[in-house]
Specification:
alpha+beta, Alpha-Beta Plaits, Gyrase A, domain 2, 5 domains, four-stranded antiparallel beta sheet, 28 helices, 23 strands
């Protein structure tokens, strides 16, 4: 009794902490503002798909950085070669390579020695370039370690510049994080149109001061032609940089007292002011060009020494352009150009609709599951429902403690968790009922039921976690949030099922430990399970039908194929609301903007369109211009048109998604094969893997047949189905393994049929609860979650039927093959090995 009390205290404390962690996320601001900051600082943040906003994925173009490094080194090397009287040709550049031909072959060794001396960093001595002599020329290549160091430094500096620029704009709580090796993810809640932000972040703002070349300079390697910002004039400038823009300490928009036009005034730091005074004193009468991102903004003639450390940039600026330029100069230049390779925008109305949909479908699904459990198990079902409620509270508590972001796929994950969390309770209840039917007392039935169910619960949840962990590793954005939610839900459900539910069950039988235990169920299903069904009698037909359906699914995958979303195809998808616009008008307007290749789909109410445009072939970031072009074409027809949702994915991102999807599915299959091999035996693992492969092909066929969009959410559904399906198989296989140890001489067909029959109630009940939890979302969830909910509903049906009719027949044939080889069906346990050792005289 003391143990019961101590466990109740411990579990109660854990639950209280979890619920207290969830509370700050549920309180209104008026209440949370009165609570201590240390308590309210960890809350669940709504994702952009729920609160509205935009996110931009920027790619750092490090190739320009590498090219600059090669050009700078080549200039340094050619200066040194001229001093050493080594004749050479102008270097040529290609990617991270450069070639410099030496005229006199006898001087090649001297040039190589000189280049290798210069190739080391003067500060830390690290080698920057790999130099080789070949065919009378020096081959220069950026050292790989130096490339990595340059890329890392450039991305880290870019992060800081992006952060400063966004802070200058006054955006509310933008999130700026590094993604991958060369990506920067910017999330901006409440920003419905990120056009200006995209332009701001896509501008390098690299400002340099160059002297205009002297008239006698001619066309040589020390000069360059640079276009003017207005496009009407070009300038011949010295390549040598007179002063870099990093010396600017402040910049502001102002109005010229002479012309009244907007200008940008700037101040230099102390070192910059000193340098600027020196160079202007020595070059009075010469034009000094101010170059911003390789375009000359202005080139005033220096009339006198400028020693005050300040200056003015004038041009044909609008007030907004002058303000933006001042902001860019204050925030500093980006070390490398940033290209927008992914853009997603959700309007605030669409976000609030998503929250309402998620809450409504989630509550209805949970209510249906609770009603089912109460109807089947009565009081014991109530205990399971209390455990389920505690589980959901703990999920929110852990998410709040982690400061996680809740997205629409995350809500779908919580809803799926409701269905899957009941599985452990059903498994425990059915095990206890079996022990009670054998005449054991309440206390003994409870103990034996939990003991026998424990390993099955552990195996089934761990196999699911393998799939979910891979989804987390290979997923991106909301899909990763889905994986986190499911993973947390599985762990908390194990705690509530094994610890909390057991505590409540022990409390309910207090004083009745020696009495018989009765848990209600479905009588006819109990009789069917007890009597047994010859499921493997139709094994040939079952396997043949499954194979034919899988072959047909593969054929559908080839033709007509899947309806791929923009995640995999690249390009732009924009949802448009323009009440007074027709399809023909919209198509004509797009054609005038050279967007005739765009497809237009009407949906919902009149004036609602979905515009799709494939990604153009070209450089990174080119897809981003499609968004502005499409919006411009629409607003020309109706200025008040709205764009509730924008998805733009560049070809590089979509290619990465495709590769990672294949890798994640293969890794999930391999991970579960390995786990089942270790926990069971090779033929068990192979049977489960083959069955899951058949389940997956049928699900792919479902996508092809129904036309449901195959996107990242669909990938989450596939990996969740892998986990769910193998979970189902593990329960059946666990019972087969148990019966093999108890009756190893029993005919395999009979043993398999008995094992399937004894787990039939659990298999059906678990499938029904998972199906009921997702059914409201599948019916009313809309397009946003259709790629997840619909295939999951289909997959639950397929996975359940394959656990009964496909997995065991495959296991039977593999076991017969193993038997012909003279191998045991199971490896001996530690106890069996010890008995064998003791039997040796």
């Amino acid at each position: 009794m003391k143990s019961l009390r101590s466990r109740a205290l411990t579990y109660g404390l854990v639950i209280a902490l979890g619920l207290l962690s969830a509370l700050p996320s549920l309180l209104p601001n008026s209440v949370s503002n009165r609570l201590p900051a240390w308590y309210t600082q960890h809350t669940i943040t709504l994702g952009l798909d729920l609160q509205g906003g935009s996110h931009l994925l920027l790619e750092a173009d490090t190739q320009t950085l590498f090219t600059d490094q090669l050009e700078a080194f080549s200039r340094e090397l050619t200066v040194a070669m001229r001093k050493s009287a080594i004749a050479y040709q102008s270097p040529s550049f290609s990617g991270v390579h450069a070639a410099l031909k030496v005229h006199n072959p006898a001087q090649l060794t001297q040039a190589l020695k000189l280049a290798r001396e210069l190739a080391h960093n003067q500060v830390d001595g690290h080698q920057r370039f790999d130099i080789q002599a070949e065919d009378g020329q020096l081959l220069i290549r950026l050292n790989k370690q130096w490339q990595q160091a340059l890329s890392k430094d450039a991305v880290e500096r870019s992060l800081e510049v992006v952060r400063r620029r966004l802070n200058e704009t006054g955006l509310v709580e933008p999130s700026i994080t590094r993604q991958g090796d060369d990506g920067i993810l910017v999330q901006m809640p409440g920003v419905a149109d990120p056009h200006e932000i995209r332009t701001l972040l896509g501008t390098t703002a690299k400002m340099l001061f160059h002297w205009q070349a002297l008239p006698d300079a001619g066309n040589n390697a020390d000069t360059q032609i640079v276009a003017g910002a207005n496009g009407e004039q070009s300038y011949r400038l010295e390549r040598r940089v007179a002063m870099a823009g990093e010396r600017i300490s402040d910049a502001q928009m102002a109005f010229s007292p002479d012309t009244g036009q907007p200008v940008v005034t700037f101040k230099l730091d102390s070192q910059g002011a000193k340098l600027f005074g020196e160079i202007t004193r020595d070059n009075i009468g010469r034009p000094l060009a101010i170059v911003l991102d390789n375009k000359v903004i202005t080139a005033p003639v220096i009339r006198s020494v400028i020693a005050g450390g300040s200056g003015e940039i004038s041009g044909s600026f609008s007030t907004q352009e002058a303000s933006n330029l001042a902001l860019l100069l204050r925030a500093g230049a980006l070390p490398v150009p940033l290209h927008v390779i992914e853009e997603r925008t959700v309007g605030p109305d669409l976000g609030s609709d998503a929250i309402a949909m998620g809450l409504t479908t989630g509550l209805i699904g949970a209510a249906m599951v609770i009603a089912f459990m109460l109807g089947i198990y009565g009081t014991w079902g109530l205990i399971a429902c209390i455990g389920l409620s505690v589980n959901i509270g703990l999920v929110f508590g852990v998410l709040g403690a982690l400061g996680a972001t809740l997205t629409l796929p995350g809500i779908a994950g919580i809803i799926l968790t409701v269905g899957m969390a009941v599985d452990a309770n059903i498994l425990i209840n059915e095990r206890i009922r079996e022990e009670a039917r054998r005449g054991k007392s309440a206390a003994m039935a409870l103990k034996e039921g939990f003991d026998r169910a424990y390993s099955t619960i552990l195996d089934s949840n761990l196999t699911t976690l393998i799939a979910i962990s891979l989804l987390f590793l290979f997923g991106s954005g909301p899909v990763k949030g889905f994986a986190v939610t499911i993973g947390i839900g599985l762990l908390t459900s194990m705690f509530t099922a094994i610890a909390v539910t057991r505590l409540m069950m022990e409390k309910s039988i207090k004083g009745k430990e020696r009495q018989p235990l009765k848990i209600s169920g479905i009588t006819w299903l109990d009789k069917t399970s007890g009597r047994g069904i010859d499921f493997l009698r139709g094994r040939f037909i079952g396997l043949a039908a499954s194979a034919l359906l899988s072959i047909a699914s593969i054929a559908l995958f080839v033709q007509p194929g899947l309806h791929y979303g923009v995640d995999f195809t690249g390009g732009t998808v924009i949802e448009v609301q323009a009440q007074s616009v027709t399809v023909d008008q919209l198509r004509q307007s797009l054609e005038t903007q050279s967007l005739g290749a765009a497809s237009i789909q009407e949906f919902g109410d009149d004036g609602h369109f979905l515009i799709r445009l494939a990604a153009p072939a070209g450089q990174s970031g080119q897809t981003a211009t499609q968004v502005d072009e499409i919006k411009s074409a629409v607003t020309q027809l109706q200025a008040t048109a709205e764009f509730p949702r924008v998805d733009m994915v560049g070809p590089k991102v979509s290619g990465d998604f495709s590769d990672l999807t294949i890798l994640a599915i293969l890794a999930a299959g391999a991970g579960m094969l390995l786990y089942l091999w270790v926990r069971f035996e090779s033929h068990f693992a192979l049977a489960a893997t083959l069955t899951i492969a058949l389940d997956l092909t049928k699900t792919i066929g479902f996508f092809a047949l129904t036309g449901v969009e195959f996107n990242l959410t669909a990938v989450a559904a596939l990996l969740a189905l892998i986990g769910y399906s193998v979970n189902d198989k593990v329960v059946v296989f666990d019972r087969i393994r148990e019966n093999l140890r108890l009756t190893p001489d029993k005919p395999m067909l009979q043993l398999l049929n008995e094992s399937i029959s004894s787990t039939l109630t659990r298999t059906i009940f678990t499938s029904v609860t998972s199906f009921l939890a997702l059914l409201p979302m599948g019916i009313a969830g809309g397009a946003a979650v259709a790629s997840f909910a619909l295939p999951m509903l289909f997959g639950i049906v397929i996975g359940t039927s394959s656990s009964i009719f496909i997995a065991s027949p495959i296991l039977y044939y593999l076991s017969q093959r193993r038997k012909r080889k003279g191998l045991a069906q199971l490896r001996p346990t530690a106890e069996e090995i010890q008995k064998q050792l003791n039997a040796i005289p």
